[in-house]
Write a structure and sequence with these properties.
- The protein is mainly alpha-helical.
- It has one domain (about 5-185).
- Helices cover about 70% and strands about 0% of the residues.
- It is built from eight helices and no strands.
- It has helices spanning about 5-15, 30-40, 50-70, 85-95, 105-140, 145-155, 155-165, 170-185.
- α1 packs parallel to α2, α3 crosses α5 (about 105-140) and α4 packs across α5.
- The longest helix is centred in the middle third of the chain and has 36 residues, at about 105-140.
- It is globular, with a radius of gyration of 21 Å.
């Protein structure tokens, strides 16, 4: 059975051994290999650890986004077919335009609910990424792999790597490399 843990272990070993796969693979290890080839002297480079955390973070972010879409379809509707989030958006527009609403208290509670939900949704990928790295480090038998994982978990390092893995510049670099890899893997596309 192919699980998140097995996929993460494979990525870990591929990164540690600088292993790349055939085209059109665009996994984290392949992207990192192309990144090293392309960016020889462009300022501060991203490390293997950052790419590892980026891969986990993006996987969990997409999973959370998918779950959110499923859950948001089950949000109770207000009279007129509007959902709570539509109401909160309208409230914010009114507040920016200086309008007062008759249902100020109810809508204010909706605003607070939406803001809390957004914060919870942001924290889910961080918690899952940290949990998976801790689980891998605990179960890992290979000394090199365990040292790699422990260096991510050392003191506040995880939060630094996680923040750096969320930089828009890294997202742009990874997106461009993945697009190039996919184009190279399909004959006839340039």
């Amino acid at each position: 059975m192919y699980t998140q843990l097995a996929a993460t272990k494979r990525l870990l070993y591929d990164l540690l051994e600088d292993r790349r796969h055939g085209l059109p693979c665009n996994c984290g290890a392949c992207v990192y290999g192309v990144y090293l080839e392309k960016n020889k002297a462009e300022g501060r480079r991203y490390s293997k650890r950052t790419f590892f955390v980026y891969s986990l973070r993006s996987d969990f972010s997409w999973a959370t986004f998918y779950e959110w879409n499923v859950l948001s379809s089950q949000i109770p509707r207000l009279p007129g077919g509007r959902d709570l989030f539509w109401e909160a958006r309208e409230r914010r527009k009114d507040a920016r335009n200086g309008k007062k609403s008759k249902k100020e208290q109810r809508i204010l509670s909706i605003d607070i609910y939406v803001d809390e939900l957004k914060e919870r949704l942001k924290s889910i990928p961080k918690k899952k990424t940290l949990g998976l790295i801790k689980k891998l480090a605990k179960e890992e038998k290979n000394e090199k792999a365990r040292a790699f994982l422990q260096s991510i978990l050392n003191k506040k390092s995880f939060y630094t790597y996680y923040r750096r893995a969320g930089e828009p510049a890294l997202f742009k670099v990874v997106s461009e490399i993945r697009l190039d890899l996919l184009k190279a893997g399909h004959p006839g596309k340039k």
